[in-house]
Sequence to fold (659 residues):
Amino acid sequence: MNEKDKQTAEETPAATPAVEAANPAPEPAKPAPEEKPAKIAGLAYTGAAIRQWWSDEPLVVDLAGMTVPPKVPLLRDHSSWNTDNRLGNVAARITPKGVEIEGEIVAGTDAAREIVRQGKLGADWQLSIGSEITAAERVREGSRTVNGRTFNAPFLLATKTVLREVSVVAVGADRSTNMHVAAAFTPTQGLQIMEPKTKPVEAAAKTEPTAAPAPVAETKPADIEAAAAAAVKAERERVAAIDAACGADFPEIRAKAVSEGWDVAKTNAELLTALRARTPVAAPTVTTKTEAPTDRVLAAALAISAGVDADTLAAGGKENEKAVEAAAKYSGIGLRDVLRECVRASGQTVGVTMDDKLIRAAFSTVSLPGILSDVANKKLLAAYRAQPIIADRLCAKADLNDFKTAQRYRLTDVGDLQQVAPDGEIKHGSFTEDGATNKLETYATLFTLTRQNIYDDDLGAFLRAPAYMGNRAAHKVDQLFFARLAANPTQADGNALFSAAHGNYGTGTGSALDLASLKAGVAAFRKQKDADKQPINVMPKFLVVPVDLEIAAEELVNGLQVVVAGSTDVARPAFNALSRYGLQVVGSPYLTSATGWYLFADPAALPAFEIGYLRGKRTPTVERGTVDFDKLGISFRVYFDVGVREQDFRAAYFAKGAN
Fold:
């Protein structure tokens, strides 16, 4: 090439620009749009009655007594112990519809994205509130209008509450709740806001054409065939890899993997699970697939481990019998085992070792607090019933409706039967009312299952508290009765319960417990009269004495012969007539006087005292309570509603025994 040719070649434009024009370079990929918060709104509570695991009765939250903070956390499934379950914040307000909320889901977790995705597709997400109850009452009778609705008793009414959180749930306790996701606010990954594909006609008419559109290259049939061939090849390679992994040992997994489009990684994961299931255990035992134990079975097993009699647990119906029978498989179960079973039953992963995460997970379940409360109740009742209560033998029992002073009336007949006159006229008799009262009080205490108890797997330490409290509750009834007895309170007629005016009081040296004073006491008892001055003819049944006189009292009422000391010229029969009266000696350490003693009638015939209980609940109750933040554990409260008052002075006699 000569110099002229070289110059011509250098001045001639290269063909590259034409090629670039025909095949323009691809534009750089646009960054994914920034994930924005999802706007939500909904109705979290309508004011309806809802069921809670910790109460046998439905719960109604009075919206008029609810305190709503400016911002309320939005959670998933009421799970507050794991920060991954926090979705965002909402603003709540009380409206005629109930508790309405609006806010944002700001969390970037997979769970949050899935809630938003399903919400945009029309999923019926529901809401649920979590409130701190600061005041409540049990509505036992009639009906009550709350939140513009009328509820029939019985139900639990939360009169004062503080809204602590709102949760997104699949199924809410209040079935009328709902949550909506505003799709237009949230162009999250994989979900773009749909825009119109064409512009309005008016706008199109005003648009001036600027240039002819570039010709679109036709797709060659060879490209379609190549894509199809590549897809077939990829599918064959996937199936071949699945065949190689499964072999001939797992035909079910192979068929499912091929039909459902699994990749090799998912297939290998399923094969690993199947291989673990086939691995034999170390001990030469035959294993069978069994269902997880129910809450009732776990409670029975734990109660048996705590020493509660199996026959006692089985009483009350076939369901209890079945639970005790099934509990035999879990003999010796401890606190740790119950925690793991509750976590496993809730669908959560169970760790190999005991740690704080497992404890928090267990107490977040519905099952565990109920099981522990059930076992504590059984242990407390067993201890309560094993403790003899002296007052139960000497007093009548009654059920009161509330804690107000209750008037206890008894009718006393006035007027004898009269001879019928020749004209057949029958004269009217009449009745008078002798008044008495009773009043309930509540006695309560707390005990705690500590974090240390759980780590030590110390079931005995946990259950020693309810057993001790069962004993103390039994003692409390006797303490109330004997304190009232010793106080000798003034009655409605202005006289002391035991007084000369009532004819049921013996004093002086002659009242010391011996054969003569006991005979005098029985005679005074038999001389009591009703309001019409007629003998009531009630026999004494119990001789109540301090422990110092218990043996002497047994000798007096059960000895068949009377031994007279010293010389006498008076003939005496060698027979103890008191032995025929059948008096039962009751010794009590609660009687502080070493010389005073009492006679009591059978309370079924004429009660001197009455023990009142609240609506038939004649044993203490154990309930799960709240735990302060500075305490590691879960607390339980024990309470007992009981009251003791005197009823009829004629049913008892007191001898002071000394001046």
Remarks:
- The CA atoms of residues 187 and 193 lie 6 Å apart.
- The longest strand covers residues 155-169.
- Confidence is low (pLDDT under 50) at residues 1-26, 28-32, 183-222, 279-290.
